[in-house]
TrEMBL record:
Cofactor binding, per record: Binds 2 magnesium ions per subunit.
Ranges where the Fructose-1-6-bisphosphatase class I N-terminal domain occurs: 6-198
Cross-referenced NCBIfam families: PRK09293.1-3
Pfam families membership: FBPase, FBPase_C
SUPFAM superfamilies assigned to the protein according to its UniProt record, in alphabetical order: Carbohydrate phosphatase
Keyword Magnesium included in the entry's annotation: yes
Keyword match Cytoplasm: yes
Gene: fbp
Alphabetic keyword roster: Carbohydrate metabolism, Cytoplasm, Hydrolase, Magnesium, Metal-binding
Protein name in the entry: Fructose-1,6-bisphosphatase class 1
Catalytic function, reaction form: beta-D-fructose 1,6-bisphosphate + H2O = beta-D-fructose 6-phosphate + phosphate
Lineage: Bacteria, Pseudomonadati, Pseudomonadota, Gammaproteobacteria, Lysobacterales
Listed GO MF terms: fructose 1,6-bisphosphate 1-phosphatase activity
Subunit structure: Homotetramer.
Positions that bind Mg(2+) 1: E96, D118, L120
Length: 340
């Protein structure tokens, strides 16, 4: 019988091969453990009393993005903060749900890494029992800095040491890259451990499937209007094939589908979010997903620049996103060049 490979074994073997050090390995193990705890809370649903908005007496609590927080957003954030504070491998943490980065409490030792996360992405789907997920990104803390400030996190996506997400769907899966391919682990709920189920995910180059929120069409810029217009015109149009559309509205679930069977995911610039630079966050969503997608042979772009080369200017910066099957992302980029 083939031996199953746990996340722990995978990481130890990567450490032996010199592709990860002990601190980064421990960090990923701790994040994975926190994801298991979040998975249990998500799985309890209404029975756990975790559905609905955070806040008291009818007043919804808001995050830095001005969005109403769900109870599970707050709980997942606390689980990740608590799990990562004491391990000694971090110099600081930053979360989509917090205004500024969080220092490591003085009572604990500090390490060389920075952890960024979106604790519960797709939270509009929590109350309707549709997949949500956690997204994370790991950076190195600049040399000589022991207590990281916001500015120390502002590194381009190419600097990521590791990135991943955990999807809380029919099964809980952790998808991870440490820069040596993108690999999927499925949570064995009876044993309580993540087991390697796909080594080296590969996104097909070509696709006939796109993911976008079509209700925003009238707000898009010219390149996106032309691009999607041509996708919709099917076999008779310039693209010469019929396209299918999917939109879960949980980035983790949409990206997981694309890593599994191909496709293009886009959240373009539109006139509603133009002042903010886009809808999705560079540091917590776009960069980690882009590294995972590139490591699986796909591509990721803002439409005008390779995503991983964007120099961040703010912790909560937003960007337009196009990622997935390489030739389709290249097509979207071409429309941006031709119709700008
Ligand atoms: P969130 O981090 O507040 O959950 O928002 C991000 C989510 C993504 O998961 C998803 O792709 C997108 O927002 C859906 O947006 P929309 O509701 O506009 O379709
Ligand atoms: Mg999010």
């Amino acid at each position: 019988m083939p031996q199953s490979i746990s996340l722990t074994r995978y990481l130890i073997e990567e450490q032996r091969a010199g592709r990860i050090n002990a601190d980064a390995r421990l960090l990923i193990e701790v994040v994975a453990r926190a994801c298991k705890t979040i998975s249990i809370a998500v799985g309890k649903g209404a029975l756990g009393g975790v559905l609905g908005d955070a806040g008291t007496a009818g007043e919804a609590s808001m995050n830095i993005q001005g969005e109403a927080q769900k109870k599970l957003d707050v709980l997942s954030n606390e689980i990740l903060l608590e799990a990562n504070a004491w391990g000694g491998h971090l110099a600081g943490l930053a979360s989509e749900e917090m205004d500024t980065s969080q220092p490591i409490p003085d009572v604990y030792p500090r390490g060389n890494y920075l952890l960024l996360f979106d604790p519960l992405d797709g939270s509009s789907n929590i109350d309707v029992n549709i997949s949500v997920g956690t997204i994370f990104s790991v950076l190195r803390c600049p040399e000589g800095v022991t207590q990281a400030q916001d500015e120390h996190f502002l590194q381009p996506g190419t600097a990521q040491v590791a990135a991943g997400y955990c999807t809380y769907g029919p099964s809980t899966m952790l998808v991870l890259t440490i820069g040596n391919g993108t690999h999927a682990f499925t949570l064995d709920r009876e044993v309580g451990s993540f087991v390697l189920t796909t080594r080296g995910m590969r996104i097909p180059d070509e696709t006939k499937e796109f993911a976008v929120n079509m209700s925003n069409q009238r707000f898009w810029e010219a390149p996106m209007q032309h691009y999607v217009g041509d996708l919709l015109s099917g076999k008779e149009g310039p693209r010469g094939k019929d396209f299918n559309m999917r939109w879960v509205a949980s980035m983790v679930a949409d990206v997981h589908r694309i890593l599994t069977r191909g496709g293009i995911f886009s959240y373009p610039l539109d006139s509603k979010c133009a002042a903010k630079g886009g809808k999705l966050r560079l540091m917590y969503e776009a960069n980690p997903m882009s590294l995972l997608v590139e490591q699986a042979g796909g591509a990721a772009s803002t439409g005008r620049q390779r995503m991983l080369e964007v120099q961040p200017t703010g912790l909560h910066q937003r960007v337009p996103v196009f990622l997935g099957s390489k030739s389709e992302v290249e097509a979207a980029v071409r429309y941006h060049r031709e119709h700008d």
